[in-house]
Structure prediction request, 279 residues.
Amino acid sequence: MRNAMSVDVEDWFQVGAFETVIDRRDWNGLEHRVEANTDAVLDLFAEAGVQATFFTLGWVADRFPALMRRIVAGGHEVASHGYDHARVFTFTPDQFRADLAKARTALEDASGQAVTGYRAPSFSIDTRTPWAHSVLAEAGYAYSSSVAPVRHDHYGWQGSPRAIHRPLADAGLIEWPITLARVAGRDVPAGGGFFRLLPNRVVERAVERSNGDDRHPAMFYFHPWEIDPGQPRVACAPLRSRIRHYSRLGAMAGKLRRLLAEHEWDRSDRIVAAHAAGL
Prediction:
């Protein structure tokens, strides 16, 4: 079964873990590493023969349009990650509409590709944003991958559906939550920092369970900064944030190579299109 390989394209200083200690007004003056790191991800995918979805900040597209074109040239999908990583629950519905439009314009102008997919920064569509899926549907998005159906101190919508589904009865929008792994009786996301910390076999079992027992494709995600052990350190960040962000960065590229070889991967939009008729 084909599973979705996805990348959340943001720079090291734009992550939710540092949002209280790095001001957005300072972003332009910091060292930008997203282009080189995303190029390294593109090389990994080319080596493995995998095409993927790049959920990208409009902020990144505005500053690195050539990178957007290289993503498209590699056969990958460019999708939206919002404009500047503001979480959806910090918006009103009208502010969310404006953020979606600003990001989509930046992404489509830079890439030349129509943007039909969306991922909320920090999986911030949850019980606080019951209007978010309706706004996405109104804006013409085909799918979202914005829900983490777990309980977590940073994000999560515990109890929400775990498989691809239509969250609205009156619209064709599809929501594809991230896949979960089971660890010591607890559900955790099978991607990002948990993937860096856990043995590969834990995530591989999660993909196998999704494909086999649950009979639906898995959704995996990571970030370009996760393969960059040389990135700057934010010493003033909380200890928990530093542990989450910096742990095992040097191991990530090798872990990804193994995962890419273990399963069949593709772009999210193609898999959504293949499953839409059955939902």
